[in-house]
């Protein structure tokens, strides 16, 4: 009886046993036989390759979407520039870099302008305001009387 037990021990797996490719193949064949699926590709699956005309059509459609996205990005940048210009706080509205968050939240745009102007005050708008002695003056006499000016200075 001990001889029979010794004969069956090689069938028992030990810790240093590693599966071979034949073991993997046998397990795969067993699984295929249980599930009823063969290793061959079924007719229901889609092919790996598509016709050239279909691929070209997809590429053209994708190109149209890329062009629309680029145009949308350009419009967003123009809108950002005009929003900065509308604040009147910068001499050149392109000095503030484009950020999508500025379009979504006016407070973030204002904070970004504040931050930029504290770091670089020379970018601020320098438009003169008030009376600087130029341009059309209201209430000024159209007729200048030189004799009246001399009489006024003499007194």
Automatic annotation (TrEMBL):
Compositional bias of kind Basic and acidic residues: 47-64
Stretches with biased composition (Polar residues): 1-12
Location of the region described as Disordered in the Swiss-Prot/TrEMBL record: 1-72
Protein's name according to its UniProt entry: Uncharacterized protein
Organism: Mycobacterium gordonae
């Amino acid at each position: 009886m001990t001889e029979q037990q010794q004969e069956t021990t090689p069938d028992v797996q030990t810790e240093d046993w590693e599966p071979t490719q034949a073991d993997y193949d046998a397990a795969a064949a067993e699984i295929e036989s249980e599930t009823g699926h063969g290793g061959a590709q079924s007719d229901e699956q889609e092919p790996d390759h598509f016709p050239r005309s279909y691929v070209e059509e997809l590429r053209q459609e994708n190109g149209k979407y890329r062009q629309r996205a680029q145009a949308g990005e350009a419009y967003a940048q123009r809108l950002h520039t005009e929003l900065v210009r509308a604040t009147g706080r910068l001499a050149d509205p392109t000095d503030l870099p484009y950020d999508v968050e500025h379009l979504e939240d006016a407070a973030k745009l204002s904070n970004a302008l504040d931050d930029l102007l504290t770091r670089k005050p020379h970018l601020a708008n320098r438009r003169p305001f008030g009376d600087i002695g130029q341009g059309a003056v209201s209430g000024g006499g159209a007729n200048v009387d030189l004799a009246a000016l001399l009489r006024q200075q003499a007194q």
